[in-house]
Amino acid sequence: MNHVLHIHYHGLTPTDPRYPRALDVLATISARVQALPPDAAIADVTGAQKYFERGPEGLAQLIRVRTLAWTGNPTIIGAGPSLMLAAMAAAATAPGHITTVPDTDEAIVAFLHPRPVAALPGIGPATARTLSHHGLHTIGDIARTPLATLQRLLGASTGRQLHDRAHAHDPRTVTPHTPPQTTTLSRTFPHDELDPHAHHRAVLALTHQLGARLRTQHTAARTLTLTARYADRTTTSRTRTLPEPTAHTRALTLSATALYDAFALQRARVRGLSLTAETTDAAAAVHQLTFDPQDAKARSIEAAVDRARHRFGPNAVLPAALATRPTQT
Q1: Which of 7, 61, 87, 170 is the most buried (most CB within 10 A)?
Q2: Where would one find the signal peptide in this protein (predicted)?
């Protein structure tokens, strides 16, 4: 029997520094916490009940008080026996309050069945209109409708999904993780730059700088986002998920170059480029072994370059394309 809390931190913005502190509060209650940036989280408090000698609502009260004390931020908390029910309970709750769905068939039916079909996760406006057109206005109406009828109306997959959810079937579990961390590096040109070769040199400089930083921090990039800023202050961004998390400069350069090429710039006046990596712990990144001797050689050279830069400075070793020619006298 699982007991899940869905916590919404009322009024937080995506960059609010209180969000990490709010997650720290949850970590004092349960080890099974899943962040839902920028302003929510879920926690499995099944194991915490015995330790704190409190039920789900008592633990929710404790979280509400601690969060208010640590961050000054009000919470909206829904408690239920599944992720879906906890989330729906939170959606029906006012700031500073708690709604609990007890883990009994009677309580679940009493909570679910009177609610409009749009309250069920997975039902958008178009699906709600289709259901309403056929006389299905509440979740209870869906629950009382034969599966075959729902599948005929909505398709096999959607019909099955809504049938299961209307009967409170939700096999999902809390998956502990923390919000992704990001590293951003930027290059601004001395003037609005038209030359694609200059753009490519900037991308190369960014990936070499990024790779060195990631390896120093013992992190690896999972995704890359390249953003171009233009003379008219507009921007264009492209994002790519990497085949595997990496801090290997060559892999970063290939991906970032592909992102730049995807811009398909035609005489664009570029003011600057920035490269953002969503990162993970390098220990969690598994390098796919290959039989390519060039890959192994490149990684050995990279390690030697890192040692040289650590000893003599970040510009001790640079790619030929980034090296500055000495001034002739």
Answers
A1: 7
A2: none
